Amino acid sequence: VTDFTRTKSLFQLPENLVYLDGNSLGPLPRAAVASVSEMMRDEWGDMLIAGWNNAGWIDQPARLGDRIGTLIGAPSGTVMVGDTLSIKVYQALASALEINAERKIILSDTGNFPSDLYMAEGLIKSLDKGYRLKLCEPEAVADCLTEDIAVLLLTEVDYRTGRLHHMKTLTEKAHEKGILTIWDLAHSAGALPVNVSAAEADFAVGCTYKYLNSGPGGPAFIYLAPRLANKARPALPGWLGHAQPFAFDPEYRPAPGIERMRVGTPPIIQLAALEASLDIWDLVDMNDVRTKSSELSDLFIELVEAGCPDLKLASPRDSRQRGSQVSFHFEHGYAAMRALIDRGVVGDFRAPDVMRFGFTPLYIDAEDVNKAASIIAEVMTKRLWDNAEYLVQSPVT
Ligand SMILES: Cc1ncc(COP(=O)(O)O)c(C=O)c1O
To answer: Cα–chain-centroid distance for residue 211?
Structure first.
């Protein structure tokens, strides 16, 4: 059984703050400070360029990819770390479209993260071959899977509402119609049990700065099903995805397997932080995380609904249908979130009216939930959000 008191002690969290935003940016693993400074001093400082070989920097993206693989049901050698999630979405989509070359439609849903949709539109424009992005309502995806669709591009957990798609069922239905699947696991990896192998997902992508706590700007990851690994031609064929990067061949030849999904030089400093974070994940059973996050989020819904009649639940009520976050609609949600942050409860706001709270058992417990709920009730009943100062929008909400 996972010892969540122990995992909580491994994070630096400011006193008197309930941090319900780990679904956006995870907190600092204490060990990351030493891990990053040792890397900088002993490796970058002392080894300089020899660090690529002698400190193993060059293989770090694959090594950490394997460790992330254990959290998402991916076998060793099928996950690569690097770039940002938007880039990995683009890469996966371009490869998938090429494999399913006879078809011209990308299907996604209206709840998908805008960057995924922008990347799809951008790729369609660049290809200029008559591709089209079709969006359906999240509940209607299964009914929209037709034989003219090349790729189904979905985010498993809706970033706004937390609604959870059934990855295995939708992938199976997609495959029945000859559709390839790309799953964005941004709000899944580290939030709930994921098994890309059992679901037979074709591609999966995700980020590490949310539930995997690698810090702001931490790199993304990409999974490629072994059956496609030597078939997928990488869009963005960078030199480190070449079969022999140091042959400096003017002609691109993809490396075997997942190595081909590398693009360029990986962010080694940030990878040192990710490595320290993954050490914590070694102590954790994802089923325990799921059980506890369901308990915490159910408790939160119960307390908030009891204390704040003005907040309307935006997330599925049944925890089995949710990821690891709970959202509420409120007309003055932005101001209300600012008022909460001022009082030590950190969530975030997603336009037009969603107040979002993440539940991350590694460092959030029932005491935090009780405390947060009572502060939210106070802010709502006393209308503490009704303050001109809270209407001034910051660049990041
Ligand atoms: C579901 C989803 N996809 C894609 C992205 C974009 O990620 P990045 O900024 O790392 O490219 C995000 C960012 O939050 C996200 O939540």
So the answer is: 7
